[in-house]
Amino acid sequence: MLNKLRCILQRKSCRCMDRYDINMEQLQQMVQKGAILVDVRSPQEYEEGHLENSVLIPEYEIKCKALKIIPDKKQLIIVYCSSGIRSKKAQRILWQMGYTNIYNLYQGIY
Predict the structure, then answer these.
(1) 77 contacts 70 by C-beta, under 8 angstroms
(2) Which of 7, 14, 64, 81 is catalytic?
(3) Cβ(39)–Cβ(57) under 8 Å?
(4) Is 51 helix (H, G, I), strand (E, B) or coil?
(5) Strand, helix or coil at 15?
(6) Dmax over Cα atoms in the chain, in whole Å?
C-alpha cells in the first residue's frame, strides 16, 4: 500500500505527456488547421511575450470568459502557460464546461 502511494505521488510531481498534451511542433500543425491558442497566464506575463495570434484568458478567469470568447464548444483549442501547470488546470475546467477538443502545450512555452 505504501509503495502504491509513493508511485502515485511521484507521477503527480513528474507528470508525463498524456493524449491531450502536445509539443510545439504539433501546436504549429494544429494552428494551421484552425486551432485557437489560449494563453492562460496573467496579463503581465502575456505583455512580456506570448505566442503569435493567441488570446489571453487568464486561468483564474477561464470560467467567466471562455464562453464569450470561444462560443463553439467543439472548436479546436490549445491552452498554454509558462510551465504547463496552469494550462492543464484550465484544460480540466474547459472540459467541465463542456468543451470537447482541448489540448495542452506540454511543459509550456519556457
Answers:
(1) yes
(2) 81
(3) yes
(4) coil
(5) coil
(6) 48
Rounded Cα distance between 105 and 39, Å, is 10
Q: Which three cell numbers stand for residue 17?
A: 505527456
Q: Domains (ranges, CATH) in the chain?
A: 18-105 (3.40.250.10)
Query: Is 81 one of the catalytic residues?
Result: yes
Judged on CB neighbours under 10 Å (0-12, 13-18, 19+), 50 is middle
**pLDDT, tens digit (0-9, with 9 covering 90-100), for 2-41:** 555 554 555 444 568 899 999 999 999 999 999 999 999 9
Beta-carbon neighbour count of residue 5 at 10 Å?
A: 9
Residue 21, SS3 per DSSP: strand
Q: Provide the pLDDT for residue 110.
A: 81
Closest by CA to 88, choosing from 76, 80, 96, 97, is 80
